[in-house]
Amino acid sequence: xxxxxxxxxxxxxxxxxxxxxxxxMTVGSSGMYVVSVVLSAVQADFGVARAEASLPYTLLxxxxxxxxxxxxxxxxxxxxxxxxxxGAVCVGLGYIASSFATGILTFSLVQGALVxxxxxxxxxPLVADTSLWFxxxxxxAVAVCASxxxxxxxxxxxxxxxxxxxAGWRATYLGLGLFCGLAMAGxxxxxxxxxxxxxxxxxxxAAAGGPVAxxxxxxxxxxLGAAQxxxxxxxxxxxxxxxxxxxxxxxxxxxxxYGAARGAQMLSLMLACGILSRLVSGxxxxxxxxxxxxxxxxxxxxxxxxxxxxxxxxxxLFVVSAMFGLFQGGIVPSYAIIVREHFPPAxxxxxxxxxxxxxxxxxxxxxxxSGKVFDLTGSYHAAFVNGIAWNLLxxxxxxxxxxxxxxxxRQHALPQRA
Length: 418
Prior knowledge:
The chain is an all-alpha fold. It is built from 19 helices and no strands. α14 runs antiparallel to α15, α14 runs parallel beside α16 and α15 runs antiparallel to α19. The protein is globular and about 60 Å long.
């Protein structure tokens, strides 16, 4: 009986599992931040343009997205432990192989096929898994889980920058491969238990809080495929905008004459503030739901992007970077809550993996696109404007889905009133 109780939702075991999840997320998400820190060093080593130097990040994020979809389906079927073990092997080998790359194309392909694919086993499957272990404070639990991704962003950039300056980026990648591969594999062994069967069999809940019959399940008044498609487009749009500061802030500071170390500090500050943002957004999400949280985060992110346009001094950039982190941290986790509120729980990992994969595709596209705009214009001003345009698309979709969801709730309430 004791063993059965500790595997229930909102239990002490669920809290322990969440703590392990944060550690795995911190280690496994390192790749997307490490490659940003070494961008300038890799560009100098291989003698390529800024857009070409952005290619490794682009392919890594594509691999990250595909990994989330593939590993999410495996997690739905076999549990999250086995995808995590596969991810540990891919991440470890990917870092090690990257250290021996002889050109930008080889380096980029390894980043996508190994580091990206392995990292994909971490974010979306773990966020979906966490949503199935909590009911009372699901939004906060998912936010805490997703914060591990930003803990990685706060921890790894200054550490990696220090080792790059002292030993070079190749030796740094070799060390990362050994550490991250072993650490991920060891932590994955604690994730053997599957979510409670009662949670997997339950129907999702509408935004108003009431259960929705599976036979009439039409999120936002759309069929499941169309509803997910709109969320996927929204995910691409918000993260094209998000990628501009996150991917290029180090290179931007280098171009302004402040140095890569200052840029790494800004990136670390941005993502540290993102941790706080995700926790606050989780609490907000428990009160107002996933869709409203998505719209709120999108509006605030757009404001922060506008603030990058008039300010390029070192102190203002630190301030705006902190604001950007505080404003956008809750956007991506809100998609997991939206899925949990409007879609069948048994499909959570696969659907969250697909949508998160699209957000990562957006990061990949945004990272490359910003570099290309820089090459064409000679500055990052137009790249920020491009990010704002994509952000407005995300805001439009979030607002549309919210209106449709509220209309759907009112339609279901009419027969009850009659």
